[in-house]
Amino acid sequence: MNRLSFLIVFCFWAATTVAQDRAAATTSATQNEIPPLPAQLSGRWYATWGRWSQAWEVKQISKGSGLLTWWSLQSGCSFQSIPVDIEYNGHVLRLTVEDEQLRKTPCSSKFVATLKRNGNKFEGDIEHMVTGAGGSVFHATVE
Question: Would you call 68 helix, strand, or coil by DSSP?
Fold first, then answer.
């Protein structure tokens, strides 16, 4: 093999290797990125003990917080646009309302939603404690 042929083969090999390394680095970075949450989510919750369902939503989602609206089956127990803490790791979305915020509502003493990402939807359970009536677990979906 003469020098020119060797140089051409070497340049081709080097260019291919660099391109493969860049592609691998891009793929790795893309796989480690957390898919962003939308600015708002809305869906329904379903009582696990019956056939009832009701709407709920989280608006103004940004940097670990948002505003939660929850429509209840119990008169006077709904809440609208109260602050909610949001934790999200790309797979699991956790929404928690602080006790201080819930004291402003007539019925609630605890609200924690743990939802897993399933494509464009989130599905999971909501633990909602109602003052004087105990707690309930609801199945919920949001998109």
Answer: strand
